[in-house]
Each structure stands twice: as C-alpha cells, then as structure tokens.
Amino acid sequence: MVTRDTTSATEALQLMVQKHFRHLPVCNEEGNVVGLLDITKVFHEALDKVERSSSASEKLYSALAGVQS
C-alpha cells in the first residue's frame, strides 16, 4: 500500500493508524516512489496543522469580539 504525494498529512495519518503502519511509501503521479512517511513525523505535522487552525480561530474570535464592542 502507498500514498500519493498530494495526500494531506491528516489523511496519511488516518490511513497509517487504521492499517497499523509505521511507515508508508509516497508515490508521484507516475507511480515512482518519491519518499517514505514516518508515523511520528506525520503525527507532528497533523498536530501542527490543528494548532495553527486553533490559533487562527482564536484570532478571528478576538477580532469579531472587538468589532462587536
């Protein structure tokens, strides 16, 4: 089983957890292996994405609260 180089970190992490994979080859459009994902790195990327999203949401909430007052 492989993943594509266009797959998001969250999708790759979900696949790796469901299939109990620690590593997952990454292929390009031609089917050539261009990398190897490690579950630890993918987990940290997904966590960073969640943290950035949370931070952006907090900033938006603060800005909207300022507009209301």
From TrEMBL:
Domain of life: Eukaryota
Name the UniProt record assigns to this protein: Uncharacterized protein
